[in-house]
Amino acid sequence: MLKGFPFARASALALAAFSAATFADEATDASKTVVVVSSENVKITGQLFHPRMCPNKTNYVAFIRQVRDNRELWLYESKSKELSQISPYSRTRKLEDVNLDEDSEGLFKGYEDEIDWCPVLHGGEQYFAYVSAGGVNNHDVYLSCIGCKEHTRVTFDPEVDGFPKWTPDGKGLVFVSARTGDGDLYYLEDATKYFKKDMKRENRNAFVRLTSSPGEEMFPSFAPNGNYLAFTMRTSGNKKRGQFTIALMDFKGDRKVKVFNNKITNNKSHPSWSFDGHFVAYQISNDLNDRVVDIGVMQLKIDPAGHLVEVADLHGKTPKIAENVYPSSYGGPTWLPGSRALVYAKRESNRLNPLEVVNLEKWLYDQNYQRATISTNSSIHRDVDCLPNLPIIVYAGEQGLDYQIFASVLIGPDLRLGAQKVDLAKYDLFKN
To answer: What is the DSSP string of 253-312?
Structure first.
């Protein structure tokens, strides 16, 4: 039994089965690392970050290119090596560019970001949701698909809409909207009805308001089975100097909300579910804009009927499982396949933040446990992303003066893929 809290039955059995022999295994590391894209390419000069692997078509990686205050959403197809920009508007005006003078006329700041891949295919097509300023500096949620020319605008409210997140069944969509003054969560039950539609106005009857607390909510994250929705909630103060924590909603049930409170007085934000749904990792910070954070992990207590009863820290006295971490752009901490280890960028200096791995079981039970450091071709790392069934991570980094997106194949005991063997010949990311 874990310290301080009665653990969920499945989690307790899984951890009880953990053997001391595992401690002697070799450390997790990268067996191969490649550059996916680089700002050395004149087509994508600027900062590159926030890569996201496509879950159903793994030869596609989305990423963000930033030039000054412009954010552009790009797609890389590793088989053809093709780069394409995702944008819902035709450019009749010039975007701000590093080669233009500050007083150039006819410029506006573009914004396409916050992509979330649909977890399932629809009619063989891979859809995604993202946020765009649409050429008019009004952030709204859009839907599109790989190879589609259509970009369906879903929200039309003059206030900011963002952070779209698909339900695990790939039908519904949750997003954050400031239309009620502060940010609240809204739910579009069947987003598939809007695929490839040319919407002229918002169908307000289609949106279900999920939260109505005085403070704002943000960073929604679904449990893998779709039963629960975790999100960041402001419990006191104002937007700039508020107190934030994690809340969990019984999404498939009565939609009641449990607010997570522990001994940490600092902000708790950016929840991230383990792939088995037993744990939620989160960021700990003084301010949501901090460039150095800590990581905590909570465990869930579920009753026999499947309802969320309570949440508490994985370890009562020291809930910080990792400290001095470089935070990701939007998502929470990154879980490795097997749901027992986290990978993150350790902040050691302005020019050095190596990738580090912490195994929850070893951290709890082995007093001599040493965390693994992943060897890559970059000294800078951020925005790590991976899929639940592949030992492949993508992340942003730098080499010299170039911003780059990398992909690494991981090997070692912290990844649990059962008897599955990964044939890299299947993955175009790692072909020369």
So the answer is: TT--EEE---S--SEEEEEEE-TTSSEEEEEEESSTT-SSEEEEEEEEEE-TTS-EEEEE
The reply to whether 194 falls in a domain is: no
Contact 176, 155 (CB under 8 A): no
Predicted confidence at residue 43, as pLDDT, reads 95
Q: What is the pTM of this model?
A: 0.89
Q: Which DSSP string do the residues of 321-387 spell out, in sequence order?
A: EEEEEEPPSSS-PEEPTTSSEEEEEE--BTTB--EEEEEHHHHHH-TT---EEE--S-S-EEEEEE-
Tell me the per-residue pLDDT of 380-427, one tens digit each, with 9 for 90 and over.
999 999 999 888 999 999 998 999 999 999 988 888 775 556 677 777
What phi and psi values does residue 44 have, to the nearest 5 degrees? -130, 40
**Which domain CATH number covers 336?**
2.120.10
* Residue 421 placed within a domain: yes
Nearest by Cα to 205 from 190, 224, 220: 190
Q: Is residue 264 part of a domain?
A: yes
